[in-house]
Design a protein that fits this description.
The structure is a homodimer of 187-residue chains.
Chain A (H helix, E strand, L loop, with lengths): L1 H8 L6 H10 L1 E5 L4 E3 L7 E16 L2 E9 L2 E3 L2 H4 L7 E15 H10 L1 H27 L2 H11 L9 H8 L3 H9 L2
Antiparallel strand pairs in A: 1-6, 2-6, 3-4, 3-5, 3-6
Helix pairs in contact in A: 4-5, 7-8
Chain A binds a DNA duplex (30 and 30 nucleotides) through helix 8.
Chain lengths: 187, 187
DNA sequence: CGCCGAGTTGAACTGAATCAAGAAACGTGG
DNA sequence: CCACGTTTCTTGATTCAGTTCAACTCGGCG
């Protein structure tokens, strides 16, 4: 549980009672590489936290898979279009490496938000950070060419290149597999 | 103040004391078309709310202006990269029509967040909604061609076409002025 | 050894940018 | 109310980054 608490308390302090409730509500699971944590079309009932490992969140766009988000160790993730809206999701979540994942039921998270102002505050601040990450991503997709996107990617995920196959990197960057291959050919 | 309270209470109820404090902290201003509400390079100290009118939030990318956000009546806006981080902003905010704007000082907003759990909750939920709007925008920029983007734009801002010049629409859509003109030529 | 998925390389194609020039709309001053 | 200049918008020709399609290479594994 260390990684979760250090993630949360880097944002804002939490009272001990809140930590105790978080502890009581956490569901710790291990998933093997290739496992589908969540499938499109369903309502996602969990907010996840990646304790260790790697996952991809993708959706299908005209028979192609498009990766929207990479879940790396120490960060939260979910099917964001579904979890809060309680509507069916377009996303699928696939575990890419044997991973340790914490899961929090929607109702439990709501209880935490409700009971602890400090937790609600952390929720707001985390969402704000993720908003800024998305803003950067828009900038990338809208104005950077293929080469620049790859460089941005390497900076943002320095230790991930050899853990992801080219298809996935290309999909995350919004460029074709061939273009990415050509870019890497010139180091 | 009607539009602000109805915006906030559509998200979550607020206790009367919170409303009273909001009222006390609101700074109501009127700005003429063309007024620069905020300039890049400074720290933005205000969260704004557009009571009526229109504004654009843009930044400069290699001597060109890129519109990131349109502030329409009934919605909040600010230099989002600066307001919460307290760092200098890349954005400039220009009033596009004579507008009525409410402004909230950073410290006042923090006080509201701090004093009222309900307000903190509203802040979180609004941020979440804006996150989803950005996610849609990524989808637009990454996968829609020029024509589809224009159609998306018309759907999202149905009453705005004739209030914005083509240059601004093109900039918001991330396409060139000429391409947009050609698209409109075929109705 | 041969198959299969992943990655590379080549050639042709394309949507949209850019460059360029002209038309329309707009507003300001005489 | 018109003349002129400026800004906004349209239209055409050219160019380019990246996609698509296709063939080939490489490495691992039954």
């Amino acid at each position: 549980m260390q990684p979760l608490f250090s993630f949360l308390e880097a944002v804002n302090d939490l009272p001990d009672e809140a930590k105790a409730l978080i502890l009581a509500k956490t569901r710790i699971k291990h998933y093997p590489k290739g496992h589908l944590l969540f499938r499109e079309g369903q309502v996602c009932h969990y907010m996840y936290f990646m304790a260790s490992g790697l996952a991809r969140i993708f959706h299908c766009k005209e028979d192609k898979e498009v990766i929207d988000w990479l879940a790396t160790a120490g960060h939260p993730f979910t099917a964001i279009d579904s979890f809060y809206s309680r509507q069916p999701s377009r996303y699928t979540i696939e575990i890419l490496e044997n991973s340790e994942v914490y899961a929090f039921l929607y109702d439990d998270l709501e209880e935490l938000y409700h009971q602890f102002h400090a937790f609600e505050r952390i929720g707001r601040l985390i969402t704000q950070e993720q908003f800024l990450i998305l803003q950067e991503r828009i900038d990338m997709v809208q104005f950077q060419n293929a080469q620049q996107r790859y460089e941005t990617f390497l900076k943002r995920f320095p230790n991930i290149q050899n853990r992801l196959q080219l298809t996935h990197i290309a999909s995350y960057l919004g460029i074709s597999l061939e273009t990415l291959s050509r870019i890497r050919a010139k180091y």
